[in-house]
Write a structure and sequence with these properties.
five-stranded parallel sheet, alpha/beta, 127 residues, Rossmann fold
């Protein structure tokens, strides 16, 4: 079972992503900021980290840069509803594996996560 760490400082976003991905059979852990996410990664071996871009303290791009150093095999997904992302992400090549826009489409997000995992993880529902 693929393991996903969700990082966002908005509790309702974390809750929505957790419900969606848990329902799809993924093992989920959550963090409400970048520092908490790095602490969780010390004990939770994530296959995917999904992080919001704009968070207090460490932003998502900075967090995913740290994730690249501590867990280089982990897929790093940035999620944001802000247009200012493009200016920051181009100066950090290789840090982001995939980008998802807010608001996201549930089916597309799940399909993207499965594709990023190379088919690893739970089978689609009803199969």
């Amino acid at each position: 079972m693929a393991r996903i760490l969700i990082v966002d400082d908005e509790v309702h976003v974390v809750g929505a992503l957790r419900r969606l991905l848990r329902r799809e059979g993924f093992c989920i852990e959550v963090a409400l900021n970048g520092q908490e996410a790095l602490e969780k990664l010390a004990t939770f071996e994530a296959d995917v980290v999904i992080s919001d871009f704009r968070m207090r303290g460490m932003n998502g791009l900075e967090l995913l840069g740290q994730v690249l150093r501590v867990a280089p095999r982990c897929v790093r997904v940035l999620i944001s509803g802000h247009a200012d992302l493009s200016s920051g992400s181009s100066s950090h090549p290789g840090v982001i594996s995939h980008f998802i826009s807010k608001p996201w489409d549930d089916e597309r997000l799940v399909a993207d996560v499965r594709a990023l995992l190379g088919g690893q993880g739970p089978a689609p529902s009803g199969v």
